[in-house]
Amino acid sequence: MSTETMPQNKSVTEFKLLGLTQDPMKQKMVFIIFLVVYTGTVVGNLLIIVTIKFSRSLGSPMYFFLFYLSLADICFSTSITPKLLADALSAKKVISYNECMTQVFALHLFGCMEIFVLILMAADRYVAICKPLHYPTIMRRQVCIILIILAWIGSFMHSSTQIVLALKLPFCGPNLIDHYCCDLQPLLKLACMDTYVINLLLVTNSGAICLSSFLLLMMSYFVILHSLRNHSAEGRKKALSTCTSHIIVVILSLGPCIFMYTRPPITFPMDKLVELFYTICTPFLNPLIYTLRNAEVKNAVRKLWRFKIGSESK
């Protein structure tokens, strides 16, 4: 008997994902497009990670945090995209219950880590621009390491809360998820119980983190940009370029997140596209934004590449 028509008293052991499209030709296009995007995400973020790791000129706290943002981006995209690619080539888009719960955990762990790192990067820019004389003392290496550890702990606590909520949901059929991945919002629609309280907890957890983080980041960058009026023209230009990159990433990351997690359990036609942009496209765009708008990163990449070519020629 198909799991889609199983009796109501039997627990669901697997889910079927509808994905982005049911059209075979469009599925092939989905595979090609997102294979390119995923490859670009991994290569671009790895390039940033390797460059920061081996470049002496990128030893400041800002690049220390950028290292972990790129790491979170790779893991975040990897928790979603490989399954999406596999399903695009498969007629049977099935994910087991355990795999589904693992995806929920990974999605929220690395997504939350990305948000916390963006907050740390904003804090670093605030201290560097608004309190330059105290910057070496406040943002010393030991402090940055502690902040990153706290970010991982906070992300783990958030994702643990999400997985506890997901594990409390009873599924007795049907098992068809109108989505390309497992997340709490589409899973709530399949649960054979009243999900009002769990959705409320979801909004107060994920929604509150997204919205409060966005407001905090926008306020911090407003203060930073306002304080730039006291800097020299050259210092203003450099700080403005860095802050603009960060603001773009914040809007791209948290805008869709706010849309998905700060509302009642209502389905909109654009839900898949919004979450697709948030989970797959943003990790691809982040390294492009940081490298194309950051002269120090571009110079460090060139030096590292020249050094590699020089070593191989010898």
TrEMBL record:
PROSITE patterns: G_PROTEIN_RECEP_F1_1 (PS00237), G_PROTEIN_RECEP_F1_2 (PS50262)
Subcellular location: Cell membrane; Membrane
Transmembrane segments: 29-50, 62-85, 105-123, 143-167, 196-218, 239-261, 273-292
UniProt membrane topology term: Multi-pass membrane protein
Keywords: Cell membrane, G-protein coupled receptor, Membrane, Olfaction, Receptor, Sensory transduction, Transducer, Transmembrane, Transmembrane helix
Chief location: membrane
SUPFAM superfamilies membership: Family A G protein-coupled receptor-like
UniProt-listed PANTHER family: OLFACTORY RECEPTOR (PTHR48002)
Protein name as catalogued: Olfactory receptor
Organism: Echinops telfairi (Lesser hedgehog tenrec)
